Amino acid sequence: MPNPIDCRDGLAALPPVLLEHLRQADEVLVLTGAGVSAESGIATFREALNGLWARFDPAQLATAEAFVEDPVRVWSWYEWRRAQVLAAQPNPAHRALADWGRQHGRLRLVTQNVDDLHERAGSREVIHLHGSLHAPRCFACARPLAAPALPESAEQLVAPPLCPACGGLARPGVVWFGEALPAEALASAWALAERCDLCLVVGTSGLVQPAASLPGVARQQGATVVRIDPQPAADFKGDWQLLGAAGMILPALLERL
Length: 257
Ligand code: BV8
Fold this sequence. Notes:
Zn(2+) binds at residues 138, 141, 163, 166. This protein is α/β, with parallel strands linked by helices. It has helices at 16-24, 58-61, 64-69, 71-87, 92-104, 117-121, 183-195, 214-220, 246-256; strands at 5-6, 28-32, 107-111, 127-128, 131-138, 170-174, 198-202, 224-229, 240-243. The chain has a seven-stranded parallel β-sheet, with helices on both faces. The protein has a two-stranded antiparallel sheet with strand order 5-6. Helix 6 (117-121) links the parallel strand 3 (107-111) and strand 4 (127-128). It is elongated and about 60 Å long. The two termini are 23 Å apart. The relative contact order is 0.21. The protein binds ligand BV8.
């Protein structure tokens, strides 16, 4: 694997052969993580805990067990995150991916994120592997529920609303650790990884399975795998690592295609 390419000051160091791969790609899979929303002011998953939440580990809050143990704490954490997303705007990374999708036609976006910033930037048919902050459902009967009005203060503890049909507690419409991913979303993402010829991995630490296996599936069948992140990944098994912020690199790449 070639050394990471420092793109923090622009793409001058980009090898022409990489640009050719990007220009010639027939079918593009883009896998995004929390880093693509970082420049919209949304704390990444492993930073998603400041202020009131600083003393919690996200993986301890993002579980059904944590919700059963303390529904108010878990629901309040998600409402705090949902308020952040509603107050945020898509950033140049989201917009560049939406533009690329419109121009290319055979680019599919698979995200681990639970925000709707890709859609608000104009991306279509986004595959959400880990659900959405905007789609609560009943914890007991799984009926979809309307998202309630947000609490006054971003750090206010609020109780989850009750399901009008069965009286169960509302839960966030996200996939918690230990829960299965939506079967259709995972199957679509897997099929894309098995047939794409370019896989862009943007803003993810690659720690969470099964999403983290998708780039390896793409590489296995011969796709070119390009990672975009300010931090290099020592265990990255793809072809190119571009070091820098997605909000700078993606628009600059798009200009060169
Ligand atoms: C499953 C939704 C099986 C919730 C998330 C023991 C028990 C059970 C399961 C397991 C276990 N051990 C392992 C597992 C599997 C487990 C797992 O992978 N655990 C990990 C921690 C080891 N996976 C699961 O549990 C999955 N389910 O396996 O089910 C099953 C099967 C059948 C039937 C029943 C069960 C479910 C995983 C989904 C968990 N839910 N999110 C919520 O959001 O609260 S995952 C959560 O972390 C996020 O959604 C995100 O998807 C994921 C990874 O985070 P990242 O997006 O990568 O964010 P992170 O902060 O880590 O990194 C940000 C990156 O951005 C960094 O690299 C940073 O440098 C970069 N960055 C920063 N700024 C920028 C930038 N990049 C570009 N530009 C910038 N400006």
